[in-house]
Each structure stands twice: as C-alpha cells, then as structure tokens.
Design goal:
By secondary structure, the chain is mainly alpha-helical. It is 68% helix and 3% strand. The protein contains 4 helices and 2 strands, in the order ββαααα.
Amino acid sequence: MYILINEGLGQPASPSCNAAVSDLELLSIILRRLNRSLNESPRNPGRISRLKRLVGLQVSSIISVLDNYIKEGCCEPSLKTLETQVDKLPWTQDRPVQEQKDKLVKAIQKSQEKARKDFDHC
C-alpha cells in the first residue's frame, strides 16, 4: 500500500491527496500482472497486449485528475512524493511501458510547476 507523506513532517498528506493512493495501488497491480505475464512461458501475447493497454489507461486516468489534486490542496511536497512513488513502481523495461512512465512523471512535474504558479495555497 502506498501512503503519501508530507516530507519532513512525518504526517499523512491531506485527505484530498489520498485519492492518489488508490490510483497508484491499481497501477501497481496492473504492472505486477504485466511483469508476471512477461515472465511466463509460453507468453500470452493477447494478455500482455491487454495489460499494456490497461497501463496506458491507468496512466491517462491519473494524469486527468492531477489538476483536481492540486485544486484540493495536494501540492508540494505531496506531488513530489507522488513522483518518487511512481518511479518506485514495478515498471517493465518494455519501451511502450517505459514511455507511459515517462509520460506520467512529466505530467506530475508539470502539475508541480502549475501548482506553484497558479495556486496561492501551494
């Protein structure tokens, strides 16, 4: 289970940020299943393809709600923690999957910049 912690404070992130926790848990489950499928012999190309598509859908889902996290007060350091936790997920070395990871990390970084610029509470 992932828990967003305010760095330096040792306290859980604001409740509005906890929506990110379930999103990361689901993404982690999909990535673990994909890793298992990639390691199976013989591989099931259809299942692998579906899992990769699910990774993309989950990444897109997280990206689509990043602005809502910010509006609800989930700013730094919670977004920085989210970025760190995304990096620690069990990503495969498969190029399309790595591209999804890069897409998500860039979106989080962009959200951090937007939060600092556009919202007084950040």
